[in-house]
Here is the input.
Amino acid sequence: MLGACGGNARTRRSSEVVRPSFSADSAYRYIQTQLDFGPRVPETEAHDSCVAWLTEMFSRFGAEVTVEEGVTKDYAGENLRVRNIIAHIATDSSQKTILLCAHYDSRPWCDEDEEAAWYQPIPAANDGASGVAVLLEVARQLQQSKANGERLKACVDIVLFDCEDLGTPRFLDELDRQDTWCLGSQLWSKDASRRGKYTWGILLDMIGAPGATFYREYYSEQMAQGYVEKVWRAAADLGYGSMFRNERGGAIVDDHYYVGSALQIPILDIIHTDGQTGTFPWWWHTQNDDLQQIDRATLQAVGEVVMSQL
Ligand SMILES: [Zn+2]
Here is the structure.
């Protein structure tokens, strides 16, 4: 029966593992497109263009797209326009909905770089574009799966948060507060009664670098231990155990922390740290977070792991 399956059907590589369909090339191109807009810093033209493109792409992949607009305060107390993008993918399995999220904004400051770069925005290939790109490719794959008549386990809401990375710049340390980060997800979660009932969720953040390591992040284990075990086991089964380390990681207040606390749902964060202490990679919040720090092999692994849960 060689060649009987279409390119997007689930294919068997070994006798045991069903390897989900996912194209790292496609995800890579979605990162490139985002970088081509320029840094997607809120209230810039690049950010506007990116919102329009994401809306168009998710619609093209058959999702119902909503852009929720609101206003919040930034670290300096100034009004800030926030646009969270929600793409709902309906399936036959309407009794369950899985939440998949990432942030799409870019940080306006390279405050972990040398001083001359502090006021430059980060290219945000990993810290922004990578999670978005994998979720776009997931949406495309789900459209294909539905077209092939495959049965999916749940409906999927993909939520792209704005203003995650506008936390107080390090060179203004005296103003620093933890809640100056994750502004889009804080705003979105505040309205918990308006949100759908999610069975569980996954957040992707910085998931494209060569040699990435993903530990079992502390709050993820607090909120979603069973799902952490399930996802890390799926990664090991797919042969990605050296990337998805089956060890406790640091505690990271990321979008999942606010979403999980407000909506009272299990949600976990797949996020790149070096070692178990939660240290971010050397290129984090520097000008080096560009396409050089993207490896298709990492995108492929994360994409397959996410697809294996849908
Ligand atoms: Zn960041």
